[in-house]
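Lab notes, practical 5.
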Amino acid sequence: MPTRSISWVSKTLAVTRKDIVSEFRTRYAINAIVMFALVTLTVISFSVGLLSPSKEILSALFWVILFFASMSGLAQAFIKEEETGTAMILRLSCEGSIVFFGKMLFNFLLLLTLSILVVPLFIVFLKVVPTDWTLFIGAVLMGLIGLSGATTIIAAIVSKASVQGALFTVLSFPVLLPLLVAVIEITTVSFTGGTFADASAPLQLLVAYDVIMITLSSMLFDFVWRI
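Output from the prediction step:
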């Protein structure tokens, strides 16, 4: 591997490692998303427990929990940099692509931790089990990749605003809507006993969304980050 590539990867991992160390010190983002997810999951389980909702509704509820829980913590990716004054240091020491992929990897790990907690609790509380675990896990992982990629650049855009939290959710929802539609359809197929063939259309949409969103975000990030 060329030296430049090794240096780029090491710098990207250094940004991720910095965020992980900072998060372990404050635990702000992880506490926010976990508490929101647990409260939302508990409220939903009590609300629909006696109604026997369909698998389609349960699929939508699963992603509603993940979406709104992630909104409570992912906005901090760049807000902390602006508040502590480390944003300027990152601008001077790193290329935009390094910052983007470093932050995106941190957001993905944060969402992965959230999913590891939410998935078993969702299955236990709402009494629904995927019939095709490969399809379900694939949908979750690809959904988390797209979610972390899109929210990383949106967090950079809103980091200088005065109402970051509210603006972050408002901007994220229309951008993430195609992803949510695709993952809900795939999750429904995995809950109802369908096959990969039944989920081919939303799978193609999900793959295309992830590739296009991450590519465009990485290309535009340097301009957004250095404004």
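Observations recorded by the TA: Residues 96-126 form the longest helix (31 residues). The mean pLDDT is 85.
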